[in-house]
Every structure is written in C-alpha cells, then in structure tokens.
Amino acid sequence: MKFADRRFQIDSSGIRKVFDLAATLENPCNLSIGQPDYDVPDAVKDAAIDAIRSGKNRYTLTAGTVPLREKVSDLYKQRGHDGGGVIVVAGTSGGLLLSLLVLLNPGDEIMFTDPYFVMYKHLAKFIGAVPRYINTYPDFRLRREELEKAWTPKCKMIIVNSPNNPTGIVYSREELEMVGKFAEEKDLIVLSDEIYEHLTYDGEFESPAKYTDPERTIIVSGLSKSAGMTGWRLGWTYGPKDLIQAMSEVQQYSFVCAPSPAQEAALVGIDLDMTETRRQYRGRRDVIYEGLSGLGYEVSKPGGAFYIFPKSPTGNGKEFVKEAIKNNLLVVPGNVFSEQNTHFRISFAVTEEQLKRGIGILGGMLAK
Ligand code: PMP
C-alpha cells in the first residue's frame, strides 16, 4: 500500500512487542495492563441493555444526547466551571483526537510532561504538530524551569494529566497554579486529561482546570476507568463553546456520534459511588509502593491512577523488562512513555495476590 507520510508518524512497536511477548508466556504475572480489573457495574450494564431493547440504537445528535450533555455540564458546574459546552465522544481518546485536530496546525508545538501518556506524542505527530517534552524526572513533579526549557514561541498548547499515566503522580495545588500562570503568560491552550479523576488516594481530586483561565482550557474525560467501560468508548470534552462547535463539525464527518447505548448507560455510570474501588486501589497502591521501596527500588509514590513508574536497577528499562519477561513477569518498558529508557511501568490494577507475586519476582531479580 502506498501510505500517506503521516502514517509513518505513528509507531506503536514498543507496546506491541510487550503484548506479543505476553501471548507467548504461560500464566505470566501480568502487571502491564492499562485498564481496571473490575467489570462494568450491573446498574450500568442494565441501563445499556434497556437502551438497546427499547430501540435507542440509532444515531444520536452529533454532540451527544441532550440529557447526557446536561449531566456532564452539571458535573462541571458543581466543580465551579461555567459557560462551557460539552461534546460526547468515543472515549477520552476521541476528545484528544478531535481537539488536537481543530486546534493545531502542522508545525505548531505542543508541550506535555515526559514521561507522557503514549497517545499524546503519536497523535500530535500524526497531525503534523511537534511535541515539546517537559522533563519531570526524577520525581515526576512539574517545575517552572522545565516548562521554560520545553517552551518555544511556536508552542500553542500544553497537556496536563493528573492523576498521571504512567507515573501515578497527582500534582499539587502549587504545581497547578504555576502551570495556570505559565499558560497565561505564554498564551497557551491548556488541555486537562482527567480520565483518572475518580482514582485519587490521598485526598480529593483537584482539577488542573481549576487553576487556568476557562477561555483557554479544555477538559477531556470519560468513563473508561471509573465505570470500567473501556470497550464501550464513551468520553466527553468540556470547553469553550466555539471549540465544542468545531469538534462537533469534525465528529459529524468522522465518528458521527458516540455509541448510543453507551450514552444511555453513561447517565448511570457518571453517578457511580467510587468509594469502595478507591479504598481497594489505595490498598494495592500501598502494597506495591511499600513492596518496591522495601526492596530498594527507586520509586515515587503514586497519588492516583493505577500505575507506578520505578527506575530500573540497571538504569536500562528495556533490558530490565526483557529480564522480567524471562522471569514470567510482564511490565512495560519506560521508553514507551518517555524519551528516555531508564524506568518501567507497573500497573497495580490486579489482585493483591498478583501484586505480591510480582513483588516477589522483582525481589528475586534484584538478588541475581
Ligand atoms: N488518557 C490517559 C492518560 C489514559 O491513560 C487513557 C487510557 N489508557 C486515555 C486517555 C484514553 O481513555 P479512553 O478509553 O477514555 O479513550
């Protein structure tokens, strides 16, 4: 096939190799998975089934059903936002793609932290934008001087992801205020990826968007993680109305709308009480963090999401992951999420038993 140049801007080989290897292992200890280990709650499933049975299977309005848009809008009103519009999209990923498509020209630059969620780099490159990496090593915190270093006059946008994939770090109020001020000074659009908003372990979720001017702020989120609906493709974007209008026009000629039954189910999913899940995942966070620090791994304590990002004891993430796989442990090399190859990502969205098994293997590898 004769591909367009942009096709070659996407490279998923790093993560694919891990999945290919995973397929060859027998009963591996799999700590590589980026999705919750719980199923969609029954109330949400029932809502989807009822929707399908009662004929809610047709296209919805391009921007999503009115009740769901109102519900999402109310959610942000309760958090102190006002005057923005809502578009319902195919997962948080849908919001990321559509917003980058309508906001960035080829050659525009976009800043985000390194390590980063993989999609940011590849989507940006796919549309011809240039990623600018904000170094957050070794503790994955945001520092003004690193923002300055990453910035150029061509930067149009900054993505903030808190709680963060792959580090699990939750940014403090001071860090978020600093980003808000920086964005104001440099006239940057702020995209806040809040997909892990319900999974915070040491306090209430603070939206990065609380500290930025609403006129320059976009929030993307969805129910993949909280309701475990990863396969249902349901997310939304909240932001200035002209942006939402532009995204709707692209959605009209591409995805058309988010899946109708998933939109009905989202009316229930959005109200789920996450207290018990949070408690359980907090326990797992403690097990993995204490386990790894006890073994002497260099690691920062995650405040949210379900990832931890330790440094490889050899300083080489890829080599370490190859060794781990020989020991039947699956984790993801840090270079999939970073311009440097020094760390690896563990997902703790698994049972405590699996986590302890993983810690045992990681301990054994250190002893060798
Ligand atoms: N943003 C981040 C930071 C994520 O980790 C993920 C899922 N791995 C997404 C966005 C995409 O989520 P969705 O399923 O809603 O498209």
Characterise this structure.
The chain is of the alpha/beta class. Helix content is 40%, strand content 14%. It is built from twelve helices and twelve strands. The strands form three sheets. Strands 2-8-7-6-5-3-4 form a seven-stranded mixed β-sheet, with helices on both faces. A three-stranded antiparallel β-sheet has the order 9-12-11. A two-stranded parallel ribbon has the order 1-10. Helix 4 packs parallel to helix 5 (118-126) and helix 4 crosses helix 8. It is globular and about 60 Å long. The model has no long low-confidence stretch (mean pLDDT 95). 4'-deoxy-4'-aminopyridoxal-5'-phosphate binds at residues 34, 91-93, 117, 161, 165, 193, 195, 222, 224, 230, 235.
What separation lies between the terminal Cα atoms?
Answer: 47 Å
If you average the pLDDT, what whole number results? 95
Going by helix content, strand content and strand pairing, the class is alpha/beta
Q: Compounds present? A: 4'-deoxy-4'-aminopyridoxal-5'-phosphate
Shape: globular
Q: Number of DSSP strands?
A: 12
The radius of gyration is: 20 Å
Question: How are the strands of the biggest sheet laid out side by side?
Answer: 2-8-7-6-5-3-4
Number of helices: 12
The helix fraction, in percent, is 40-55%
- Beta-strand residue fraction: 5-15%
Q: What's the structural blueprint in terms of helices and strands?
A:
Elements: H1 13-24, E1 29-30, H2 42-53, H3 66-78, E2 85-89, H4 91-103, E3 109-114, H5 118-126, E4 130-135, H6 144-150, E5 155-161, H7 173-186, E6 189-193, E7 217-222, E8 235-239, H8 241-252, H9 260-269, H10 275-295, E9 307-308, H11 317-326, E10 329-330, E11 332-333, E12 344-347, H12 352-367
Parallel strand pairs: 1-10, 3-4, 3-5, 5-6, 6-7
Antiparallel strand pairs: 2-8, 7-8, 9-12, 11-12
The structure holds 4'-deoxy-4'-aminopyridoxal-5'-phosphate.
